[in-house]
# Entry
Amino acid sequence: MRILGIDPGIGRCGWGIIDAKSNKQKAISYGCIETDKNMLLEERLEAIFDEITRIIKKEKPDSFAIEDLFFNTNAKTAMVVGQARGVVLLAAVKAKLPIGIYTPLQVKMALTGYGRADKNQMGQMIKILLKLDQIPKLDDTTDALAVAVTHAFSYKLKFDSFYD
# Structure
């Protein structure tokens, strides 16, 4: 199963494609969509939508996973990131992909077994699980890969016979 994982954001939107089979996951491609803060909001949203759509067409994922938003301080930031998340979800829906949504706590628990794992711990687990030479440069990319791996683990638990 090929999974597209997303860590939504307006300035940086991390993405990662993994292949999952049995208990093994392999990174296929990953990166980060960056938008210029000097662009109009609607232009930034369009750029994110267009790039996610391009990635879906190129990589042909079977499933889509995205991190749920968690903000407890800045409502303005939450609103803008929510809009970016919305256009990413729209791209997945238009491609008719099944969608999994995971909280940061669920992702941390799935990868490390510890809900308060820090960025370094998460990066190290992604490096180990996906057999990467190094941790991706941007946390947004690492987080997107972590969401994809979480989805692979969750999918296996729900549909274990899929892997038989």
In short: Residues 32 and 138 are 8 Å apart (CA to CA). Residues 75-94 form the longest helix (20 residues). The domain at 2-163 is CATH 3.30.420.10 (Nucleotidyltransferase; domain 5). The chain is about 50% helix and 20% strand.
